[in-house]
Predict the 3D structure of the following.
Amino acid sequence: MSQTFLITGASSGIGYELAKVCGRDRHNLVLVARREEPLKALKSELESAYGIQVWTYRADLTQAEARQQLFGWTQAEGIAVDGLVNNAGFGDYGPFVETDWDKQEQMIQLNVLALTHLTRLFLPAMVARQQGKILNLASTAAFQPGPLMAVYFATKAYVLSFTSAIASELEGTGVTATTFCPGPTTSEFQENSGMGQSKLVQGRKLPTAAEVAELGYQAMQRGEWVAVQGLSNRALTLASRFLPRKLLTNAVRQMQSPA
Ligand SMILES: NC(=O)c1ccc[n+]([C@@H]2O[C@H](COP(=O)([O-])OP(=O)(O)OC[C@H]3O[C@@H](n4cnc5c(N)ncnc54)[C@H](OP(=O)(O)O)[C@@H]3O)[C@@H](O)[C@H]2O)c1
């Protein structure tokens, strides 16, 4: 039976590609972001390619009222959300002492509060129906402190901790919660986060957002608790469990510093 997935941040990058993968598997979609034009173009493309139903919804998810209105709108439209993909997020590169506070606050609003609030809004109906999937986008950044992107790494550590905890609470309910942790990926993220100079991305061949989205989608479908994209990323996240914290954090600082 066709299901409906709501994807935040579907106007570009990984979210855009996740929408394509969900559409390919004939799921109906609610696409959310601030830019409506790319959402509308994607809606036309997916509806004509797969005969699915796609709704677009323009929202700035840093705003609590906007999140509440999105939830209310799905209820008014009679849209039962079977899958929630909390993908919208961004970072900010540079020493914390020099950062723009408004940008840090918005990042926490989006990466942490919006993800938590939307999960809280949509989860009860999934549990009541005894079926549902949540996919929360973290990052390999979730596994260690991140000098030069201190707030971003901390937001992703939150996503990993929160999502693992609710994955445990949800066992036996028919609802699963998956934390997906990509490494650096080609998208608008690097430019929006101002991290083009970082050694983490500079001169490296990054996986495409389409490749990464496919892995995230499969992990969500299997109901995995935590999925890390890529063999080398999996090795790094594993190693980070055993290294002394100071050594680990300073190693990340080296990796993050300008090339
Ligand atoms: N790319 C990477 O290297 C990488 C690695 C690990 C994890 N991730 C995570 O993957 C997720 C997707 O990132 P991406 O790489 O696909 O970046 P992206 O291309 O910049 O996409 C970010 C998406 O979030 C949306 N968004 C940003 N601010 C928003 C707001 N206030 N309200 C609603 N939507 C908002 C953007 O749409 P609008 O601008 O239209 O609102 C866009 O659709 C993020 O959570 C990111 O942290 C990325």
